[in-house]
Amino acid sequence: MDMSRVGLLGGSFNPAHGGHRAISLFARRALGLDEVWWLVSPGNPLKLQAGMAPFHARMASAIEQARRAPIKPTGIERELGTRYTVDTLRGIVDRYPAHDFIWLMGADNLAQFDRWKDWREIARIMPIAVIARPGYDNAAMASPAMAWLQRFVHDATDAKDWTDWRPPALVPLRFRPDPRSATLLRQSDPHWHRRYAGRVLRDPVTHAPIHAEDSP
Questions:
Q1: What's the half-sphere exposure (Cβ side, CA atoms, 13 Å) at 106?
Q2: Which of 62, 55, 57, 15 is nearest to 37 (CA)?
Q3: Residues 11-35 pLDDT 10s
Q4: How far is CA 153 from the centre of its chain?
Q5: pLDDT tens across 149-197, in order?
């Protein structure tokens, strides 16, 4: 593969929606990315599994939302056999050494980042871009993780220079509020995942087939 500047956005995508797409396209512009990869998690250790749709359906919704955009959903965590972000990022960097990667996270995740396994090591693997989210910004700035990361903050005006930064490095990005959420979508359509039953899928990054019968 040619050298690419890739943003990594992790999540359950339960389901993927226009808010994910809008944030990704905003980050692409702000950071000068070639593309954004959505890491569709087989299972988030910090989230309850009750109400979690099958992996196949969540991937299908992500592929649908990413259509005609420089966004590639992937279930690479299943191939790598990783459960925690730190192990996933190590695996991705090893598998794609020609790419430059930056981790994309919302302010809500930064607020609880210190609860993630080996979170300091995550910051040492690649730069981090934190996207503002209304209602979470104050908690994020006051979080234990931010107390440690504060010394590594770069100004948003330099965001496109992130490939020149040595991790740890963090850049805050402002984004207009987006009211869409997976929770609201599930409440309005609890059986949303059924419309993807039987759909033939292939991972846009690894090109591996994704079978419905493999879903948890």
A1: 18
A2: 62
A3: 999 999 988 999 999 999 999 999 9
A4: 20
A5: 999 999 999 999 999 999 999 999 998 767 677 777 777 777 788 888 8
Residue 208's alpha-carbon distances to 74, 201, 202, 204, 205, in angstroms, are 10, 9, 6, 8, 8
Amino acid at the residue 3: M
Q: How many CB atoms lie within 10 A of CB 193?
A: 20
SS (H, E, C) 32-66: CCCEEEEEECCCCCCCCCCCCCCHHHHHHHHHHHC
Per the listing, tokens 């993927």 go with 16
Please confirm whether the linkage preceding 15 is cis (ω < 30° from 0).
Answer: yes
Given a contact cutoff of 8 angstroms between Cβ atoms, the answer to whether 69 and 25 are in contact is yes
Cα-based distances in Å from 71 to 5, 27, 129, 142, 215: 12, 11, 17, 32, 23
**Token digits of residue 136:** 């979470």
